[in-house]
Amino acid sequence: MLNLSAILEQHARRNPKAEALVCGSTRVTYGELDGLANRIAGGLAASGIRRGDQVAVLCPNLLQFPAIYFGILKTGATVVPLNALLRPREIAYHLRDSDAKLLFCFEGTAELPMAQAAKAAIDA
Hints:
By secondary structure, this protein is an alpha/beta fold. The protein has helices at 4-14, 30-46, 64-74, 88-98, 114-123, and strands at residues 19-23, 26-29, 54-58, 78-82, 100-105.
């Protein structure tokens, strides 16, 4: 399948120990990132996510985001990125409008309670 995940796989094959992500003192290699994305893709497939499905992601810029993003692409599904500042009503709208079958959601913080907002959106 030709999408951005193919580029990650190519880098992971050619130079798996090269740094793909750097966040503070944490470094993730292309091999590690590809491995994480494969595990996520496997979990998605086991959950019934297939090519053409939409999967929403409510996550700030964290190291987990690229692994989730590439994992979704590896299943052939479409990534529906959601702004971490959305309110429950807005999250609900985007989930309905995109026909997302699944939502990855960062737990959040006291200042940015994303999981609470997502739960309120889904309950509505």
